[in-house]
C-alpha cells in the first residue's frame, strides 16, 4: 500500500520545509520535491496544510478501576477519539492495586487493547507494592517490551507505595535502564486536609483543590527528587500543575538529578474557578492534582516554552457526570478523579498555545510527540518525520474553525469539559503506518489495527 502526500509544510521538532512524503509498507519511504508514485493508492494534496508526525499521548487511562467505578472509555472509543484528535500512539498507565499480581495485571491491560485499539499503544507498568516476588516479575515485564514504571506517592493502601518500596523500585529501574514515572503528592497531608474539611461541613467539589494544595504536590516532588538523587534513577514527574512543583524539579535537575517534567492540557487551559461552579457542575473538573488558580498557567506556559516541561499529555481519565461524578455529591472525596481530554489535546494546544503565541510550532511538535518518543524508547520509529520512521502523519488544517461539543466527540463520556470552546485548526487527515484512519474529523479507517509497541530501555 502506498500513500503520497504532496506540497505539505512539514514541521518536526527541529525543522520546517515544504515537501512531498511517500509512504510505503507502513514506513516513510521518501521525502522530497515532485515525488511520484504510479502505484499510489491515494495522492493527497496538502497545500496550505501542516504535516506533523503522529502525536503521542504519554499519559492516559483507558481501563481503570478507580474509586468504586470504572473509567468509561474502552480501547474502541478511546483509540478512535485519539486518532480524530491527531494522536496516533497512546501510553496507558497499567495500574494494578496492591493486591494484584503484576504479571497478571499486565496481561489483563494488554488484553483490553489487543485487536481492539485502532491506534498504536504501549504501557507504563504500575508498581503498587514491592515484595519478595515483585522484582522477577518486573524483570519479565521489561523483557516483554515495557521500558517505564509508574509509582504513586498518593492513594495510600490502594495504589501508593511506601518509601522502602519506592527505593527498591528506583534501584531496579536504574539497573535495568527503565525510567520511572511518578504521581507526586503527599498522601498523609491530603488525608489530614480531607478529614478537616469534611468535619467542617465543606463537602462540595470546590473543596477538592484546598484539600490538595500546591504545597502538597511540591512536597511530593521534593520527596521523589531525594530518592532519585540517592539512587541515580531516571524519573519523570507526571501531570505537574503548579509553580512550586516545577521549581522543585528544576532545582533537582540543577543538582544533577535525571528528571523530566510533564504537564497536561487541562492545567494549561482551565483554572480552579471551573471546579467552583454551582449545582455540582464543578465535579466535572475534579482531577488530581487539582486544576489550580489561574496564575499558575503562566508559569506552566513559560516552562513549556523554555522546555523545562518536556511533554504535554492528558491524564485522560473519563467518567460520566451522571451516575459517576455524582457518586460524590455529598462528599468531594468520592468524586471519581479525572477529565476526558484525549480527543482535544492537540487542537487545544495548537489553538491556545501556538495561535496565542505562547509556544512555537517546533515546541508544539516536540512537547506533543517527539519528547515522549525519545523518553520512552519509541524514537525515531515514532515522533518524527524521517526516512524509515513509521508513516504516522497528521495533515493539519490551520484554517479550520469549529467548537468542541460532547454531542459530536468520540469519547464515551456524557460531557466534555471544553463544551463550546472554539478551536482554530484540526487534523484533516491522520494516518497510522500509512493507513488513513481519519478524514475531516471522522474516523473512517480500520478498527483494531493498532499494535503493541515493544520498547528498548532508554538509559
Describe it for me?
With 459 residues, this protein is of the alpha/beta class. It has a single domain (53-375), classed as Alpha-Beta Barrel (TIM Barrel), CATH 3.20.20. The chain has twelve helices and 19 strands. It has helices at 75-84, 102-113, 134-143, 163-176, 187-199, 208-211, 214-231, 243-254, 265-269, 295-306, 345-354, 361-375, and strands spanning 2-11, 16-24, 27-32, 42-45, 50-53, 55-60, 65-66, 69-70, 87-94, 120-126, 148-152, 179-183, 235-237, 259-264, 311-313, 393-403, 422-432, 435-439, 442-443. Strands 1, 2, 3, 4, 5, 16, 17, 18 and 19 form a nine-stranded mixed β-sheet that branches. Strands 6-9-10-11-12-13-14-15 form an eight-stranded parallel β-sheet. Helix 7 (214-231) runs parallel beside helix 8. The longest helix has 18 residues, at 214-231. Residues 50-404 form the Amidohydrolase-related domain. Its EC number is 3.5.2.2. One of its GO terms (molecular function) is dihydropyrimidinase activity. This is Dihydropyrimidinase. Keywords: Hydrolase, Metal-binding.
Residue fraction in strands:
15-25%
Mean pLDDT: 97
CATH architect. name: Alpha-Beta Barrel
Number of strands: 19
**CATH-defined fold name:** TIM Barrel
Looking at CATH, the homologous superfamily is: Metal-dependent hydrolases
Largest sheet: 9 strands, mixed
Low-confidence stretches: none
Spatial extent as radius of gyration: 21 Å
Number of domains: 1
- The helix content is 25-40%
Tell me the structural class.
alpha/beta
Family: Belongs to the metallo-dependent hydrolases superfamily. Hydantoinase/dihydropyrimidinase family.
Keywords: Hydrolase, Metal-binding
EC number: 3.5.2.2
Cofactor: Zn(2+)
Amino acid at each position: 500500500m502506498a500513500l503520497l502526500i504532496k506540497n505539505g509544510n512539514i514541521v518536526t521538532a527541529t525543522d520546517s520545509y515544504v515537501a512531498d512524503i511517500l509512504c510505503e509498507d507502513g514506513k516513510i519511504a521518501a521525502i522530497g520535491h515532485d515525488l511520484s508514485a504510479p502505484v499510489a493508492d491515494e495522492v493527497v494534496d496538502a497545500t496550505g496544510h501542516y504535516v506533523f508526525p503522529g502525536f503521542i499521548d504519554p499519559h492516559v487511562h483507558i481501563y481503570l478501576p478507580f474509586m468504586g467505578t470504572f473509567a468509561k472509555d474502552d480501547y474502541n472509543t478511546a483509540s478512535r477519539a485519539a486518532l480524530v484528535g491527531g494522536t496516533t500512539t497512546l501510553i496507558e498507565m497499567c495500574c494494578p492495586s496492591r493486591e494484584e499480581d503484576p504479571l497478571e495485571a499486565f496481561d489483563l491491560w494488554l488484553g483490553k487493547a489487543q485487536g481492539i485499539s485502532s491506534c498504536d499503544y504501549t504501557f507504563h507498568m504500575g508498581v503498587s507494592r514491592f515484595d519478595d516476588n515483585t522484582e522477577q516479575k518486573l524483570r519479565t515485564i521489561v523483557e516483554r517490551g515495557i521500558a517505564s514504571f509508574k509509582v504513586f506517592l498518593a492513594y495510600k493502601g490502594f495504589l501508593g507505595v511506601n518509601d522502602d518500596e519506592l527505593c527498591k523500585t528506583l534501584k531496579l529501574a536504574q539497573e535495568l535502564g527503565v525510567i520511572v514515572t511518578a504521581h507526586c503528592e503527599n498522601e498523609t497531608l491530603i488525608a489530614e486536609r480531607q478529614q478537616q474539611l469534611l468535619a467542617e461541613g465543606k463537602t462540595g467539589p470546590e473543596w477538592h483543590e484546598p484539600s490538595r494544595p500546591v504545597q502538597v504536590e511540591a512536597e511530593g516532588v521534593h520527596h521523589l527528587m531525594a530518592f532519585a538523587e540517592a539512587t541515580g534513577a531516571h524519573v519523570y514527574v507526571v501531570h505537574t500543575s503548579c509553580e512550586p512543583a516545577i521549581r522543585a524539579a528544576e532545582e533537582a535537575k540543577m543538582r544533577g538529578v535525571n528528571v523530566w517534567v510533564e504537564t497536561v492540557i487541562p492545567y494549561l487551559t482551565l483554572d480552579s474557578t471551573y471546579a467552583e461552579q454551582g449545582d455540582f457542575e464543578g465535579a466535572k473538573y475534579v482531577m488530581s492534582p487539582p486544576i489550580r488558580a489561574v496564575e499558575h498557567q503562566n508559569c506552566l506556559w513559560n516552562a513549556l516554552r523554555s522546555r523545562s516541561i518536556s511533554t504535554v499529555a492528558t491524564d485522560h481519565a473519563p467518567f460520566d457526570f451522571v451516575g459517576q461524578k455524582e457518586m460524590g455529591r455529598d462528599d468531594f472525596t468520592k468524586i471519581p478523579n479525572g477529565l476526558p481530554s484525549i480527543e482535544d489535546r492537540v487542537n487545544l494546544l495548537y489553538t491556545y498555545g501556538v495561535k496565542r503565541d505562547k509556544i512555537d510550532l517546533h515546541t508544539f511538535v516536540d512537547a506533543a510527540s517527539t519528547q515522549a518518543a525519545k523518553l520512552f524508547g519509541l524514537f525515531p520509529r515514532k515522533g518524527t518525520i524521517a526516512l524509515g520512521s513509521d508513516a504516522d502523519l497528521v495533515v493539519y488544517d490551520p484554517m479550520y474553525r469549529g467548537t468542541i461539543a460532547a454531542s459530536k466527540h468520540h469519547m464515551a463520556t456524557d460531557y466534555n469539559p471544553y463544551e463550546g470552546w472554539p478551536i482554530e485548526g484540526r487534523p484533516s487527515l491522520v494516518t497510522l503506518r500509512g493507513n488513513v484512519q481519519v478524514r475531516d474529523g471522522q474516523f473512517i479507517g480500520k478498527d483494531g489495527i493498532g499494535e503493541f509497541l515493544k520498547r528498548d530501555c532508554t538509559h
